[in-house]
C-alpha cells in the first residue's frame, strides 16, 4: 500500500491550494484519513481528519479556511486550502488507516511542500 500526495507549491499570502492524496496497492477498505503538517523546527501536527463516513474535524488554526474531503471510489483524499498564511508553510503529510484484506494498519505519505510567501 502506498499514499502519494500532490499539489504542494509556492503561493502568496491569501492564495489557495488543493492537495490530493491517492492510495494504491492491496486495499480492501480505507478507514480514517487525515492531513498532518510539519514546519521546520516544530512537531508534526494534525491539520484535519475525515472518517469513512465523511465526518470531519479541524485544527483551530485552519477552521474556516481549509476543507477536507474524500472520494471513497477513487481512494483519494483532498485538502482545499484558502486564505493561506505564512504560518501555513510546512510539509503536508497524508495519513490513512487501511485494511488490506487482513488487519488494519496506519500508512504515511512522503509529504508535499507548501510554502506561503510573498
Question: How would the global form be characterised?
Answer: elongated
Strand content: over 45%
Roughly what is the average pLDDT, rounded to an integer? 96
- The rounded Rg comes to 14 Å
Largest sheet: 7 strands, mixed
Give a count of the beta strands, DSSP E runs of length 2 or more: 11
Oligomer designation: single chain
Helix-strand topology string = EEEEEEEEEEE
Spatial separation of the terminal alpha carbons: 37 Å
How much helix, percentage-wise, in residues? under 10%
Describe this structure in words.
By secondary structure, the chain is mainly β. It has no helices and eleven strands. It has strands at 2-6, 10-11, 17-24, 29-38, 45-50, 56-58, 66-71, 76-81, 90-99, 104-108, 112-116. A hairpin with a 4-residue loop joins strand 7 and strand 8 (76-81).
Per-chain topology:
Blueprint: E1 2-6, E2 10-11, E3 17-24, E4 29-38, E5 45-50, E6 56-58, E7 66-71, E8 76-81, E9 90-99, E10 104-108, E11 112-116
Parallel strand pairs: 2-11
Antiparallel strand pairs: 1-3, 3-8, 4-5, 4-9, 5-6, 7-8, 9-10, 9-11
In short:
With 118 residues, the chain is an all-beta fold. Helices cover 0% and strands 56% of the residues.
Amino acid at each position: 500500500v502506498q499514499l502519494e500526495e500532490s499539489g504542494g507549491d509556492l503561493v502568496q499570502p491569501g492564495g489557495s491550494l488543493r492537495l490530493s492524496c491517492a492510495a494504491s496497492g492491496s486495499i480492501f477498505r480505507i478507514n480514517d484519513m487525515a492531513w498532518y503538517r510539519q514546519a521546520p523546527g516544530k512537531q508534526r501536527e494534525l491539520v484535519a481528519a475525515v472518517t469513512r463516513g465523511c465526518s470531519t474535524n479541524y485544527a483551530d488554526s485552519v477552521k474556516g479556511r481549509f476543507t477536507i474531503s474524500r472520494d471513497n471510489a477513487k481512494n483519494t483524499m483532498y485538502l482545499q486550502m484558502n486564505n493561506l498564511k505564512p504560518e501555513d508553510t510546512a510539509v503536508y503529510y497524508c495519513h490513512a488507516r487501511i485494511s488490506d484484506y487482513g488487519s488494519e494498519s496506519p500508512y504515511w505519505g512522503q509529504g508535499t511542500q507548501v510554502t506561503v510567501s510573498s
